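A protein record pairs a chain with a discrete description of its three-dimensional fold. The following entry can be read in just this way:
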Amino acid sequence: MLTDISAGARRLANNWFCRLSTVRVGAVVLVTLLLAGVVFPVAGTSPQVNTASGGGADTPDVQQAQADSNATDTDGDGLSDSLERSVYGTDPTDADTDGDGYPDGMEVRCEQALPDADPLRTDIYVEVDSTQSTTLSDPVRTSIVETFENAPVSNPDGSTGIDIHLVTDDTKLSANGTVHSKSRAGAGNDIYDFRANHSEHRADGYYYVLLTDDVAYNGDDYFVGAGRPEIAAMERFDSPKVTASLFMHEFGHAMGLDAHQDGIDEERYSQTEYDSVMNYNGLYRQLSYSNGTDSVGRNEWQFVAENRTQPDIDCVENGTCPSRCTQN
């Protein structure tokens, strides 16, 4: 069964209530839309209309219904301009207001694909599978989520931080020995095999991480983790901090923090000089990426928020994934 933990749900609810004053300004437009029978859920929750008391408005006529069906959607994100302005607070001229790679319409209407998404706050989704009987422990998950939540990046809603959603899926997957970071002949022996055969969220734009017993990087099984663009494989340890730190390191590679960049996967800088989990002198000692204030001066959190490597969303059509989203 899929599970997801994040801080995004409560923020999306808060965003809704904080925009009540804006809703009043656009009341005429919103009432017309609701009465026309159009349901636009916030992260999968349909707004409720009480027709049993109060009011007194007539049933929308055919002309009103036609006008609603032709509502302008300037940025093609699946949300009408009027709803973006009056309800969600998103930018009707920008299909992805928070710049996290997911169209606003998908974040609002695709709870099945993107649980607890917030169109005004950076979201990152990761599917985690395992060849072992268990997945990431709660302490490890909490450490990772809190690290991203405390990231020094700004969001359109005025908050800071990133919501990383760790969606744990399959366990006890069969591995054909060591899991390699490069494609190899045969089944079940490289990370690409597992993503191709077991990922349930690849079309939704999820990263893929595999927990396993033995990992090889560039053919060398001395390593305990390996990260490639969009994917990673890693071993687990008894220490939650060590496991969480290794996850952050390999997931950093999956997001595009590459070994050819100064200091990454090296020991030539002290932790003070290069304050990042991507530094071998920081690995297993910390979880965070650099904020750019150290000697190396690379703002890795800004890169993660704005320029990271992102998996394609194959299911998107008019801002949403029709088979997995609430439709108009």
In short: The two ends are 28 Å apart (CA to CA). The chain has a mean pLDDT of 83.
